[in-house]
Amino acid sequence: MDEQRTLTREVEVTLIPQGTPMTLPEGEQVTITHRLGGNFTIMTSNGMFRVSGANADALGEEVTETAKAADAAGANGPVEIDQLWEALKKVFDPEIPVNIVDLGLVYSLETSERLEGGHKVDMQMTLTAPGCGMGPVIAEDAKTHLEGVPGVAEAQVDIVWDPPWNQDMITEEGKMVLGLV
């Protein structure tokens, strides 16, 4: 459901689909169109933008915490692969109401122990279209969510184009959300 809001302060946003960082002024009238993975997609008279959960207060919403919940001991413990996948299910392309896992955008997840302690996660993902300007934003969201999983000290997210993404890669759950089944 769309919700009209007035920005309570100046806020950093990302222009969709170009991925250009911008600033919207206090008092700007916006419409929240999506709440995806703790972030917001908004419309203004000048276009569509992504507002990070860290700036939710400018919309009159509660600020989300994506910082690590693990303490130092937890960072050195084992990494549960299921927790990595669950964390990635909170990452969305702001134009599509399906997470990147169910869209079939995550190609690989590998973990390795670091000499400094904790684990590193290496992830390869793709995008629905090569020209998507939101790619770096989505990859950064994935990195942040992975680094919030206990045991993960570092994450590297790379965008790859082989194999090319197609709609057959969407899970049944994703197809249901998109009305494809």
From TrEMBL:
SUPFAM superfamilies xrefs: Fe-S cluster assembly (FSCA) domain-like (SSF117916)
InterPro entries membership: Fe-S_Maturation_MIP18, FeS_assembly_SufT_put, FSCA_dom_sf, MIP18-like
Organism superkingdom: Bacteria
Domain MIP18 family-like: 82-157
Name assigned to this protein: Putative Fe-S cluster assembly protein SufT
